[in-house]
Design brief:
With 311 residues, the chain is α+β, with helices and mostly antiparallel strands. Helix content is 20%, strand content 29%. The strands form 5 sheets. Strands 10, 11, 12, 13, 14, 17 and 18 form a 7-stranded mixed β-sheet that branches. It has a 5-stranded mixed β-sheet with strand order 2-3-8-4-5, with helices on one face. Strands 1-9 form a two-stranded antiparallel ribbon. Helix 1 packs across helix 2 and helix 6 runs parallel beside helix 7. The protein is globular.
Length: 311
């Protein structure tokens, strides 16, 4: 039987929020089978649980934000996508995440630090079958046309594969890879995707800060690009780091559905909002998916049983 996974022990991290600039502490704790991933705002007078669900996404401007049931007036957790991406990359099903502020710390701007934290705590198999969401029919969400066209799609696939293409029309970004295909069956999430950092443009900084955003951003936790070039002294971690970060985000955005996907995801100029709309479109068509388990691990897609190698 392919089993559910949680942590062996708790682990902690301290950092700042990318947008809030606030100091925040995370405590990642084991959770029982079938719990899913649950954020808990422990800084409030009465702690509030925020189970990760597609319908819990209440805001997708610049990041994915969750609240109980998606209530925009309820306590929130912002910028969950990098941590969720790490959980997906390691195949973690059940986890409590205690958080002392309303934004997940940005750490180095990628998912690599979260992968390290989670693996340092150890991955434990649980006595319950791991559940997957298998896509049975193509589902697509599109917006705009011509130069403003963007879209995201899920199609049947025995495994989990992501294809992403960007088009920023920017000299520094255009010099890098514009399209990446990543298959989870490779077992190389940590090596090929997790280290890709978030990025921002200097021309947007003043606008963002006037809106109280980007207050914790720096070259220590983001790729910073001016009108012509990357400003970080150490350059890029991958030749195609920009588009790889978009895949990293998509992995995290799609994992809020509550199950690892068995599907081929492809996207052109998609982002947090479109990824969530794609999931909602999928869930609106019950005939387009099913929840499956694998009693015989040999029948599971390649790589799904080996998503959490030791460091």
């Amino acid at each position: 039987m392919l089993q559910q996974r949680t942590l062996k022990s708790l682990t902690r991290a301290v950092g700042v929020g990318l947008h809030s600039g606030q100091r925040v502490e995370l405590t990642l704790r084991p959770a029982p089978p079938n719990t899913g991933i649950v954020f808990r705002r422990v800084d409030l007078a009465e702690p509030v649980d925020i189970p990760v669900r597609t319908e819990a996404v209440c805001d997708t401007r610049l990041a994915s934000t969750l609240s109980p049931g998606g209530d925009p007036g309820a306590p929130k957790v912002h910028t969950v996508e990098h941590l969720m991406s790490a959980c997906a990359g390691l195949g973690l099903d059940n986890l409590y995440i205690d958080i002392t502020a309303e934004e997940v710390p940005i750490l180095d701007g990628s998912a690599a630090a979260f992968v390290y934290l989670l693996q340092s705590a150890g991955i434990e198999l649980q006595k319950a079958p791991k559940r997957f969401l298998r896509v049975l029919k193509p589902i697509e969400y599109r917006e705009g046309d011509g130069a403003s066209l963007k879209w995201a799609r899920l199609e049947p696939y025995h495994g989990y594969k992501l294809t992403f293409e960007i088009d920023f029309d920017h000299p520094a970004v255009d010099q890098t890879g514009q399209r990446v295909v990543f298959d989870f069956g490779s077992g190389q999430y940590k090596r090929d995707i997790a280290r890709a950092r978030t990025f921002g443009f200097t021309k947007d900084v003043e606008m963002m800060r006037s809106r109280g955003l980007g207050l914790g951003a720096s070259m220590d936790n983001a790729i910073v690009v001016d009108d012509y070039r990357v400003l970080n002294m150490d350059g890029l971690r991958y030749d195609d780091e920009f588009v790889k970060h978009k895949i990293l985000d998509a992995i995290g955005d799609l994992y809020v559905v509550g199950y690892p996907l068995l599907a081929a995801y492809s996207a052109y100029k998609s982002g947090h909002a479109m990824n969530n709309k794609l999931l909602r479109e999928l869930l609106a068509h019950p005939e387009a998916y099913e929840i499956v388990t694998f009693e015989d691990e040999a029948k599971a897609p390649r790589g799904m049983a080996e998503l959490a190698p030791a460091w």
